[in-house]
Design a protein that fits this description.
Radius of gyration: 17 Å
Largest sheet: 7 strands, mixed
Shape: globular
Strand order of the largest sheet: 5-6-4-1-7-8-9
Number of strands: 9
CATH topology: Rossmann fold
CATH architecture: 3-Layer(aba) Sandwich
Number of domains: 1
CATH class: Alpha Beta
Order of helices and strands: EHEEEHEEHEHEHEH
Strand content: 25-35%
Amino acid sequence: MIEETLVFVDGENISIRYKQMLSGGRKPRAENVVIGESLAWTNRIFLAANWNIIRVSYYTSISGDDDAVTSLKRAISKTTYLCNLGEMQRSGQLIPFVRKKNAKSKKESICDIAIAVDVMRACYRDHAANILILSGDGDFVQLFNEVVHSGKRIFAAAFSSGLNQEIPLVVDEFICLDDLFFEPTGAPAAILTAATSATKPQPGIEPNLREKPRRPVAFNV
């Protein structure tokens, strides 16, 4: 049985770092879904391994009136994710959590707070065995530690651009998003980091089904 995973996406961080990668000359993949600095998504995220995803919550913000918020919510809810579950493939919609922000603001802390509250609620109400957070924001380092202390397995995924260097060190597994959103440049970027030691398991695999310890390898993208 593949363990259930809840996914929490820091949409502002992912969108902002995506644009920075673009500015750095990376070529985006054609299937990416992007809306300004509010949404950046690709279905490649969960296809490199077996994931039993039960929900993807997407937290972001937008400047504008209530109609702008509603319009963004609709766009996010029409965006789907795919995951491999053994020999099957499952799909579902992203669940939007959209806040208004000041037009001059780059990132709203209210989204970070909402993610932290919802993650800890999921941990202590035992909603899933695994938590995956998409963000490279250093503000979440303490949250990662708290998830570990709750007894859940914690995974993180982010771009290399702006990545807080503490994050790969405090999670069970870190996934670099670079080559999942962008065409490869030669050397694979979507690899398990040093934080994923040879003894750490693959996501959602039962202990008796895990492979023997091996060196970290690149995901196929």
